[in-house]
Amino acid sequence: MDLKALSASLNLSMTTVSRALNGYSDVSEKTRQRVIEAARTLGYQPNSVARNLALGRANAIGIVYPLEAGDVADPRFLEVVSGITEGLAPANIDLLIASASHKGELDSYDRMIHSRRVDGFIVARTLVQDERIDYLRQAGVPFLAYGRTAKSDDYPWFDFDNEAGSVLAVERLVRLGHRHIAYIHASLHYNFAHQRHAGYLRGMHDAGIAPQTDWLLQAGLARCSGYAAMEQLLARPVLPTAVIVDNNLAGVGAVQALIDRGIVMGRDISVIVYDGIPPDTLLMGRQITSIIQPTQQRTGERMATLIQQVIANAMPLSELQMLCQPELLPGDTDGPCPRH
Fold it and tell me: With pLDDT > 70 as the criterion, what percentage of the chain qualifies?
């Protein structure tokens, strides 16, 4: 049974039957009910592709993501994707992930918009100055930013209070007697890294400690980069008594470098890692002291709800901006300053 046959059985035009099934107000309620009843009786199943094209919907959300080496191996990234997928499933909405180079991201957005493959976007790993946000705003396309930018007042976003998290880490180490605190961070072009770096500086300032510049090291979002950064730190003539790593990917490598050197965390040096580290990491039975946020699964589900609300355009902007507070999860990789 197709639309043509259904229309013939009712002695109505295909246009009238289609508009009745899609709820258009120019079709009377009596005719609409007659069409719906006939469709049910005759077993008519609408062509969802054609229906979505007619309504201008793709029933899909897009993420254009410049995948880096560590992303696929990062279970937290996969958990976020899983949470978004689960959150969209009840509405029969798919999640499309397009991998793109950093230089080709806007081209990917442009192709997906003009081919009408998605109804909106989730913009991941936002930058301090993010041209993707500007592009989508100018294009008038619904989107949700996973993370704020320098200007975050007039668009929907989901984020964590990254600055507050780093302050928590510094305050804990200071209470343990540490004043020589190193910091390994991602590129400050990423807004999460910029915010966490600002929190580290604020925490140090509040404690009356001047950060030592050669203990501030940038590392890529990969295990090997964190390992190399920790090796550089250990080669300094004067060593810190504590280290904060601002992301879990570099954190894995940094911790592994200490283990390989036979350095005991919590005794010889204190370590705090933002987001902890994946459970498959060999930690010699240690529990990493971490700054934690809501589970990645829950994060993804929240974003799925928000992007659907953005597309529906039924809520004020203030209810489409969500900031979650971090917590400090104590472990056994930090302890009293050994030289305090």
Answer: 90
- The per-residue pLDDT for range 159-198, each reduced to its tens digit, is 999 999 999 999 999 999 999 999 999 999 999 999 999 9
Instruction: Dump strand ranges (E) for the chain.
Output: 60-65, 94-99, 120-123, 143-146, 157-160, 181-185, 216-218, 242-245, 270-274, 289-292, 321-324, 327-329
Provide the sign of the torsion angle of the four alpha carbons 60, 64, 69, 74, taken in this order. Answer: negative
CA 138 to chain centre: 22
Report phi then psi at 236, rounded to 5: -70, 150
Exposure b/e, 52-88, CB count within 10 A at least 16 = b: beeeeebbbbbbbbeebebbeebebbebbbbbbbebb
Domains and CATH numbers, the chain: 3-55 (1.10.260.40), 60-160+295-324 (3.40.50.2300), 162-292 (3.40.50.2300)
Q: What is the DSSP letter of 127?
A: B
- Reading the block at residue 81, the tokens are 């994707």
Q: What is the pLDDT of residues 282-336, one digit of tens each?
A: 666 778 999 998 777 788 999 999 999 999 887 888 899 999 999 999 999 999 9
pTM given for the model: 0.78
